[in-house]
Amino acid sequence: MSKDTKKNETKNSEKIKEKTKVSKSEKKEAKAQAKLEKANKKLEKAKTSGNEKEYAKIKFVATIIAIILVLGLIAYVTNTIIKKQNFYVQNPIATIEVENFGTIKVELYPEYAPETVANFIALANNGFYDGLTFHRTIPDFMIQGGDPNGDGTGNATLKDLGQDSDEEYTITGEFIANGDNNNTLKHERGVISMARSDYSYYSTSLATEGYNSASCQFFITTEDSTDSLDGLYAAFGKVTEGMDVVDAIANVEVETREEQTDSSSELTQDRPVDPPVITSIRVETYGINYGMPETREPFDINSWYMSQMYGY
Fold first, then answer.
1. Residue in 220, 211, 231, 202 with CA at minimum distance from that of residue 302
2. 109 lies in a domain?
3. Measured distance CA(157)–CA(275) in Å, rounded
4. Which of 10, 56, 75, 155 is the most buried (most CB within 10 A)?
5. pTM of the entire structure?
């Protein structure tokens, strides 16, 4: 029997037990109500007949039944309130296995960035990240990975989300600069966030295109970087275990730390000589379906550039 089957059977069993409890409670209440109605009828009859002893006896019984009903109602309401207060939804937990380095556990925060979390879960649990690398590592800043091209230029396709299309896609950036005031997460040490392009280098009018250019690449900060990243990138979780692994990856040997001006060599900056391989990423959702992200068509910067330069 699979773990999922056992979980479903356990949940179904719990539901049946809960229904049974409610059913028994309702039956008891109905019986008490019937007794109270019967006692009231006898009380009215004794009152009209003038039999004071019988009247007093029945009145006493009716009072006791009424008290029992009230106490039962109080207990039911109190129990309901306690259950609601104790209700807790476990956030999804991502497990990132890195070859020769170890395991990183990350708690995801759908309450801050629901589309980003849904996208990451879908890609991870479809096996998209398996075999990819951390292609950019900077000590005292962050590690970046999840690019199918392995150099910072790649996007995921709709097929990677389980759809029947090879078209690349991006998602809407869930952060303040892009009009999403819900995401107030700070880029503190250990925070996972989405990498994206910055087209404002070409024109300030393209800022929004850059905001909505994230697809599959992510980074994990190794130091607090709130000044340069907060409100500009979609943070969506935080490392709970394995920061030593993140630190080790951040300090691997790279091809160069020098800023490159030659476009043919710019992709070698901060690129590990031997990029750490992501063996797998899987996300435990604890039975909750976070759905699929709303996707966008990627902005074609090359076509835009050609139109600006040559008018087509």
1. 202
2. yes
3. 23
4. 155
5. 0.72
Rounded Cα distance, 291 and 296, in Å? 16
Query: Looking at the structure, do residues 55 and 139 belong to the same domain, yes or no?
Result: no
Q: If 0-12 CB within 10 Å is exposed, 13-18 middle and 19+ buried, where does residue 146 land?
A: buried
Q: 239 is written with which tokens?
A: 């490392």
Taking residues 130-153, what's their average pLDDT? 97
Residue 309 domain flag: no
Select from 264, 272, 200, 277 the least CA-distant residue to 232.
200
pLDDT top residue among 289 and 257: 289
Domain count, the chain: 2
Pairing of the two strands 170-171 and 134-138: unpaired
pLDDT in tens, 80-99: 666 555 557 899 999 999 99
DSSP string across 226-253: HHHHTTTS-EEEEEEE-HHHHHHHHTS-
The answer to whether residue 273 is domain-embedded is yes
Report d(CA 63, CA 134) in Å as an integer: 74
| Residue 219: predicted pLDDT | 98
Same-domain pairing of 109 and 240:
yes
